[in-house]
Structure formats: C-alpha cells, structure tokens
Specification:
Layout lengths: L14 E4 L6 H8 L4 E4 L1 H18 L25 H12 L3 E4 L2 H15 L8 H12 L3 E2 L2 E3 L8 H11 L4 E3 L7 E2 H7 L11 H6 L3 H31 L9 H5 L4 H14 L3 H13 L5 H4 L1 H23 L7 E3 L2 E3 L7 H29 L22 H17 L21 H37 L5 H11 L12 H13 L1 H10 L4
Parallel strand pairs: 1-2
Antiparallel strand pairs: 3-5, 4-6, 6-7, 8-9
Helix pairs in contact: 1-4, 1-9, 3-6, 4-5, 4-9, 9-11, 9-14, 9-15, 9-17, 11-14, 14-15, 15-16, 15-17, 16-17, 17-18, 17-19, 18-20
C-alpha cells in the first residue's frame, strides 16, 4: 500500500486552501500522499479571530464554561482558576498522548493533521489564529509527528493520535522529517523549520485533540484506492474470461438492467469493454456453447459482487463528504455560545469503514476463486496443470494461489466489524465508543490485501492468455493485450519455473500505482 509522502508527485506543486468550506477527498489525498502544501484563507483567519474574542470574554467570567475554565471528561465539574489554565491545556495534551505499538503510516498522520486544521479553520473551535497557522506551517515543512497504533477508541474522537500531533506543536515528543531515517525531537525539527512552539491558552488543547480526523483520513485514503481497485477487478475479470475461454454474453447491458444496481451495470460494461473484439474468445465460442453452456459463479456473477463493492464505495463517499463539511469538536462555539455536543462520536465513519472492509474481503475472495480455476485441469478448459511449463517438473502458479488464499483468510478475519464493540472509559462518562480508529486500521489491511490478491489474478490470467495465444497462434482483445504487454515489461513470458515472488511484487506495483488501469484505459478509453 502507498504510504508516506512523495515530493516527486505532481501534487507537491499544488496548494490546497483550507477555510470555512469543505475539503474534498482528492484534497486529502493530495496533502497526505502527494505532498501538496496548504494555505489558510483570509476569511477563515478572520472568523477564527472573531470566535476567539468570545472565548477570551468567557474565560474572564466567574461562571464555569466546559473546556474553557473546567477540567475534562469525568473531571469536568472542577472549576480551574485562571493562573492554572495554561497548565491545564498542556497537561491535557501530554496525558492524552498515550499511544503505544507500531508507528502509524505518515500518510495517515498527514491526513489526520489536515482534517484537524480544517476543523480549526471553520471558526467554531475557539482557538487563536496562531494555532491554525502553526498547524499549517508544520504540515508544509513536512514535519510528521510520530503516532502509535493503539490509543484511540473513536470517541471522543481520535484522542491519543491527535494528542501526539498536538504535542509536536508544543515542541515535545518525536517527529519525522524529510531526509531523516529516524525520528527526531520535535523541538529541534520546529527550530530547523523556523516554527515557534505553541503556548496553549484556554480551550486550545481540547480543540486540537477532539475530532474524528484519524478515522476520516483513513476513510478518504481508502476510498481513493478502492475506486481504482474496482476497475482493476473488472480488468482482471475480463482477462480471466478470456483466459478461461468463457463468454461475455452474461455481461450484456440488457441483463444488468433487469436488476438496476448502478455498480453492477458499470462493472459489466467495463468487463465487456476490456475483453471486446477478442479473436481468442471468438475462436472458442462455438465450443463453449456446445460443451460448457455457463461459466462458474466466480466468473458469471462478478458484476454482482464488484458492483455491490462499487455501490458500497458510493455510500462511503456520501458519508466522507458530509464529514469533510463538518466541524467536529466539543464544545463548539455557535452564535457566541459555547455548546457541548456529541458530534465527536465516530459511529457514522466507523460503520462505513467496516462496510468497506467487508466488501474488500469478498471481492478478494471471488478473485481468488477465479485464479484457482486456471490451475485445475478439470476446470481450466485445456490449459496445463497449474499453468506449469512442464507439470510435475514445474509447479507453475500453484503456490501463488496459496498466497492469495492466505491473504483472503486474513481479510475475512479483518471483515469482523469493530464498530459493534464498545468498552466504556473515563469513569463511565464515555460509556459508549465507536472503535472507528480500529475499523480504519483494519480497512488499511483490507485494501493492501485486496491489491495483492488482484495482482496475483492479473499475473495468472496474463500467463494463461499468453499460453492460449501462443498455442492457437491468435491474439487477445486490445484491452487485455495492453494489460499483458504492461506486465511483460517486468515479467517474462511463460517458461520453466522462476523465482515467483518478484513477479508477484511487480504485478502488485502495477495494480497499486494505478499503472494497470492507466495502460488499459489508454487503449479502450475511460472505464466506469
């Protein structure tokens, strides 16, 4: 899976404006993965300053105001005197930066930071303009706080991950910087970048850590990747139909209209497009009609599975776009009032993170079943056992399918929903939590696994097509020919057994980078 930033990306030359309006999923990916810069709109800075004036006024009133002059969570009943409030905010960030485990990928942290900045820029959190400006400066300097795998329950938001990021703004903790292989102290990284560490005032520590930004960032990145993988699945299916001497007739648009799911129609259309005008299929159709009649479910029903996958992504996009337009904090400032709320609960995001992990596992499962058909002489319609050059001496792609099966098994376990779990915290004040961060972590595993499973189907189908074309002295469809030709730039044509892992890795690179989709679309036109 793609991780970290890429200064060589075209996005590195872009600047994303963050203000009172919503970011897009593409904006998140550009900053998180592509290294795009950020700037804060003048209107946003003005609104932030106006709201901050109200917080300053409330801070000087004798009546306790949650988040401004009180403790937090189960300690919210304690009124904090004025001279201890800076310590209160620092202590909040320090104590909540309690993560543990492996480091989280830099692209996830950058997405999280951008989304927290976006909420700060709505003018509803009560921070000073300098807080938002410092956050933007840290992002633009490529400084990425070290965040750990465990610590968030998804309510009140992603507290521990966001706290590690906030800690870096204070010049504390560790960060990663461009060009350094190891983490460095945040204080030295800020100094090298000419950034003054923040001295927090009332409300600001809470505003920096109380959001669903980590789970939303992972959702945006996953949506971006899964949209591309939906096309990859259709390409690999088209190659499998051709390599197995199947039929395209079941993908006819009239049949899909009988069950009008938009994803199903798009998937079937893509399969037809990629495998269209195939001499290889045309030569096999009469034999198919006489001896086969129907393809197996894993081939024939692929639009129904990949179509449902697509429609689930569409729902996830709707949820993500609503969240991108949100100001998630507690309390928030509305019309001059400081209002407590429950918008930090991650349930809406957690649910779709789980939904996507489920459909990713199932799409991987049907891909593995298609791959397996190529290897069995009882089902592969005349191909050699395991697509081996000399079966018995050579094993061909036998163990590549084992690799798929191992990944699919892992993804089935990852499909168990995190969002149905809840462990009470904060002395039962926070007695129902979303576990959305955990759902996001599982989904990243699912995306990576799906890429690898589809890559092995692609590699196997390409081997079968090459064998078919060689033996029959004919050609494959223009779309599948482009897919095979791209693979052959790094993977030789079928021959005696070779070291297979590098070939799987090369196919995975073509799938994960978008190169496979781009190559096929360059021949057949844009896919749905």
């Amino acid at each position: 899976m793609n991780t970290g930033t890429s200064n060589g990306s075209p996005d590195a030359k872009r600047t994303i404006t963050v203000g009172t309006g919503a970011l897009s999923i593409a904006d998140v990916v550009a900053v998180a993965r592509g290294g795009a810069a950020v700037e804060i709109s003048a209107d946003s800075l003005e609104q932030i300053a106006i709201t901050r004036k109200r917080i300053d006024d409330l801070a000087n009133e004798p009546t306790p105001v949650y988040g401004v002059s009180t403790g937090f969570g189960a300690l919210a009943r304690r009124h904090i005197p004025h001279d201890m409030r800076a310590q209160l905010q620092r202590s909040l960030v320090r104590s909540h930066a309690a993560g543990s485990g492996p480091e989280v990928e830099q692209e996830v942290i950058r997405a999280l930071m951008l989304l927290r900045l976006s909420t700060l820029c709505t003018g509803h959190t009560g921070v000073r303009p300098v807080v938002a400006e410092t956050y933007a400066a840290v992002l633009n300097a490529g400084i990425t706080p070290v965040v750990y795998e465990y610590g968030s329950l998804g309510c009140s938001g992603d507290l521990a991950p966001l706290s590690h990021c906030a800690l870096a703004l204070l010049g504390e903790g560790e960060v990663r910087v461009p060009g350094s292989e190891k983490p460095v102290p945040a204080a030295s990284a800020l100094a090298d970048a000419g950034i003054t560490p923040l001295e927090l005032e009332e409300k600001e520590g809470l505003a920096l850590i109380n959001g669903t930004d980590g789970m939303l960032g992972m959702l945006c990145l996953a949506i971006h990747d899964l949209q591309d993988l939906a096309k990859v699945a259709d390409i690999s299916t088209a190659m499998t139909v051709e390599g197995l001497h199947g039929t395209l007739s079941v993908f006819d648009d009239k049949l899909q209209k009988l069950r009008p799911h938009p994803g199903e129609a798009s998937s079937a259309r893509n399969i037809r497009t990629v495998a269209a005008d195939s001499p290889l299929l045309a030569a096999a159709q009469e034999d198919f009609r006489q001896t086969q009649v129907q393809d197996a479910y894993s081939v024939r029903c692929s639009p129904q599975v990949s179509g449902g996958f697509r429609d689930t992504i569409t729902h996830a996009i709707t949820v993500a776009e609503r969240e991108l337009a949100a100001a998630v904090d507690n309390p928030v400032v509305i019309d001059g009032e400081v209002r407590s709320n429950g918008n930090f609960h991650g349930a809406p995001v957690a649910y779709v993170l789980d939904f996507l992990a489920i459909v990713a596992a199932d799409l991987a499962s049907i891909s593995e079943r298609r791959t397996d058909r190529f290897l069995d002489t009882a089902r592969n319609r005349g191909l050699p056992a395991f697509l081996a050059d000399d079966p018995g001496v050579d094993s061909g792609h036998m163990i590549a399918q084992y690799t798929q099966a191992g990944i699919v098994s892992e993804l089935k376990r990852a499909a168990n929903p995190a969002s149905v779990d809840s462990i009470p915290s904060s002395a039962m004040q926070e007695d129902h939590v979303s576990m959305g961060w955990s759902a996001g972590r599982k989904l990243r595993t699912a995306v990576d696994g799906l890429q690898r499973v589809l890559a092995i189907e692609y590699l196997t189908a390409a081997r079968a097509i090459t064998m078919r074309c060689r033996d029959a002295e004919t050609e494959s469809a223009p779309g599948t020919t482009a897919a095979v030709a791209l693979l052959r730039e790094g993977v030789a044509a079928p021959a005696t057994d070779r070291f297979l892992a590098p070939e799987i890795a090369y196919a995975h690179k073509l799938v994960a980078s978008g190169a496979l989709v781009a190559s096929v679309e360059g021949v057949v036109g844009a896919l749905d």
